[in-house]
Every structure is written in C-alpha cells, then in structure tokens.
Amino acid sequence: MKRLLILGTAILMSCTATPSQGPSAMQKNAELLVSESQGGTDAAGFTVIKNENEFRNSIKGSFGLIDLKNEPSVNYPKFPKNKKVILYHMGSFRSGSHRVTSIKSVYVKSNVLYVEIPLIPSGGMEIQVISNPWFIFAVPSDYQFTSVELKYSN
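^ that's the sequence the OP posted. Answer follows.
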C-alpha cells in the first residue's frame, strides 16, 4: 500500500522494509538510469523494480519507437546487479519542463529514503502542457526504507 504526504517541497511515499541508516555513509550512492518528462502517472508514487523483465517493461518506449520484431537491438540501460532499483513517478505538473537530470545525494534516515535532486527554476517562457515525469534510479541493495522523499535543492 502506498500513500502520499506532501511536506513543503518534498514528496513522501510509503512502501515496505526495516531499520534506518544514517545520512553520513549513504550520500552520493545513487545511479540515475532513466528519466523522462512524460509517461508517468498522475499521482506521485514509487515501485521497487525486482528484475530485468520489470525494468524493461517500465522503460519500454523511452528510447523511441520500438519495432517488436527487432526489440533486442534497442540499447536499453543494463539492469544493475546487487542494487535496489526504484521507479519514481513524480505526479502531474502544469509545464513540460520537469525532468530529473541528476541525483545529488541519497540517504536513509528513520526508514525514509531521501533523494536530493536539483531544483529547476520555473518562470518565464515555458511549455504549457501537462507533464507526468518519472525516473528510475538505483541505490545500494542494503538500503532499508519504508518511504521515499524527494528533496529539491539549488
């Protein structure tokens, strides 16, 4: 079961797991695998991707049009071994410029996986279209958490 709590500029989602680890040893241990500005869900949420098949199904279509007969020729990112892979839907936005370009740091504290991403300034001329950004990232497999919270920073 997942639930959404909005805390200022942070988004908190719930999942499953156990104890917490401190922020000191866990920063900068994330790998951004795929990020798109469209194709996500209307509501923010996350899923832990368990295997290569789920991973490919999650990113299908993100690398252009796919010819089903020649799908193996598509250059998908490799599914990380010995890591926890997370698909995070950011929800709906009223402009098309939302997309995660990097992850500054990650850490677990009190069963919450904190993911720090750059704040993209808004304002001025922007594409006015509803966007549903999403991204897939990997963290060390020993990270234990029950929630994921995005934190925006400059």
